[in-house]
Amino acid sequence: MNYRALVTDIEGTTTRISFVTEVLFPYAAKQLPDFIRQRHEQAEVALQLKAIRQLMKQPDASLDAIITQLQAWIAADEKITPLKALQGMVWRLGYQQGHFTGHLYPDAAEQLKAWQAKGVQLFIYSSGSVEAQQLLFRHSDFGDLTPLISGYFDTRIGAKKEISSYAAILQHLQLPPGQVLFLSDVVAELDAAHQLGIATCQLIREGQPAGSHPTAEDFYQVNL
Ligand SMILES: CSCCC(=O)C(=O)COP(=O)(O)O
Ligand SMILES: [Mg+2]
């Protein structure tokens, strides 16, 4: 089957889960308090703080109250859009200062290059913000891979377990669902995409629970 577009998840698919849970999340949890206290008047930060106060239903929530709420959301791995946006801003500084590079499995880096070279359009769909996605690929272990990527989707298009999110992605791609392949390690995400006729393949790299989708242990085993 020759798919015209590939949409791939990041955490657990292109990238080791522990890079997100043991590097990125702890870094954000440590840096966010000072980042918010120092930059809360900057427009991009203030916009997210306004959204967080709305979610908290506390229009006058203090910075300390917001920081406490953010730490709770991080600890619970909540996929809340303003949290993900602020994490992306903090990770921007971490990548730029060389505190870490973006983990990619070697097979993922190699195959993304090969698939793009043969004309497959590559897209990323992650709960991490589009900025966080671009940072990971721009500062990857294999250099700047952003030239390979045609587009990025995050929670602003919808949550990853919602069918409507994949309908919106298809609308963006302007392709029939059968010409699109979605890669993820999470069955519920693949189930949602499959409901629309999008082809799916589950990456099982670290013993993730399997579903009814075709599976692969690495990108070399993915039939594109
Ligand atoms: C772009 S690396 C950071 C990924 C992230 O913040 C995240 O929450 C991943 O969530 P997902 O639902 O895509 O596994
Ligand atoms: Mg994942």
Automatic annotation (TrEMBL):
Metal-binding as UniProt keyword: yes
Transmembrane residue ranges: none
E.C. numbers: 3.1.3.77
Cofactor note as given: Binds 1 Mg(2+) ion per subunit.
Pathway involvement of the protein, from the record: Amino-acid biosynthesis; L-methionine biosynthesis via salvage pathway; L-methionine from S-methyl-5-thio-alpha-D-ribose 1-phosphate: step 4/6; Amino-acid biosynthesis; L-methionine biosynthesis via salvage pathway; L-methionine from S-methyl-5-thio-alpha-D-ribose 1-phosphate: step 3/6
Domain of life: Bacteria
Catalysed conversion reaction: 5-methylsulfanyl-2,3-dioxopentyl phosphate + H2O = 1,2-dihydroxy-5-(methylsulfanyl)pent-1-en-3-one + phosphate
Coiled coil start-end: none
Keywords (A to Z) from UniProt: Amino-acid biosynthesis, Hydrolase, Magnesium, Metal-binding, Methionine biosynthesis
Pfam family membership, one: Hydrolase
GO molecular function, one term: acireductone synthase activity
Cofactor dependence: Mg(2+)
Annotated family: Belongs to the HAD-like hydrolase superfamily. MasA/MtnC family.
Subunit structure: Monomer.
Alphabetical list of HAMAP family matching this protein: Salvage_MtnC
Function, as annotated: Bifunctional enzyme that catalyzes the enolization of 2,3-diketo-5-methylthiopentyl-1-phosphate (DK-MTP-1-P) into the intermediate 2-hydroxy-3-keto-5-methylthiopentenyl-1-phosphate (HK-MTPenyl-1-P), which is then dephosphorylated to form the acireductone 1,2-dihydroxy-3-keto-5-methylthiopentene (DHK-MTPene).
Protein name in UniProt: Enolase-phosphatase E1
Gene name of this polypeptide: mtnC
